[in-house]
Every structure is written in C-alpha cells, then in structure tokens.
Amino acid sequence: MDKKAPAGNPSPARPNPLPGCPMAAAFAAIGGKWKLTLLYWLAHGESHFAGLRRRGAPITPKVLTEQLRELEADGLVERVVTGPVPAPVIYRLTSYGITVLPVVESVRLWGEAHLRRTRGETATNEALGCARPIA
Length: 135
Known about the structure:
This protein is mainly alpha-helical and 135 residues long. It has helices at residues 22-30, 35-43, 49-55, 61-73, 95-98, 101-119, and strands spanning 47-48, 77-81, 89-93.
C-alpha cells in the first residue's frame, strides 16, 4: 500500500499471490481476520469509521484502517468523504461488494453450526452483531 498516494484515490487491486488460482484470489480479497465481519456489518448498512470501531471493539484502529483500505483496493467497499476535513467518512459496499454477500452469509451460517458443534453455543453476540441473517 502506497501511503503517499493522494487521499481519495484507491490503490489498484492487489496482486493474486498464486496467479491463475481463483481460491487464492478470493482469499486475497476477503481473507483476513476482520474482512468478512466488516462486509457483514456493511451489508446491514453504511457506517462511519467510528461506528465500525465501536461495533468491533477488539479491532485496533490501525487494523481496521488496513482492512478497510484492502477492501477498498479490491473494489468491495467504497469510502465516501462527507465534506471538508475533518468530516466523517462513510464506508459502504459497492455493487461489486454486494456480489460477495452470499459467500459472507454462507460463512456466517457455517460459523453458527460450528459454534453449536464445537462449543454448544448459539450465535447471540450482540456486541459484534453477527447473528442476524443477511437479507
């Protein structure tokens, strides 16, 4: 990531670590500790950076910024500046980002089943808010 790039200009898509491998391309775009969760939250509506930070309390601001920038570079999320600096920035899914939502919902459902199978838990964590299905 080029930190000297002008603000508002997303960096070009990141390279596929295994050229020609669709799985590697998918994991490069949506893999990572928080990307699927961020996509899930944004599927339920756009959000300011501060809103995402509050919602994902365990995410450090640095990691949140990195994950959002990577999602933006891959064209899944767009960053909308709402006015002159220091105006809040809104993050929302792009039309391309919406195409990944069936994958996100499938992973969420698998995660619910995995929690029940391995820990006898149900997905009710309202703090992280990952129990609601994606419409």
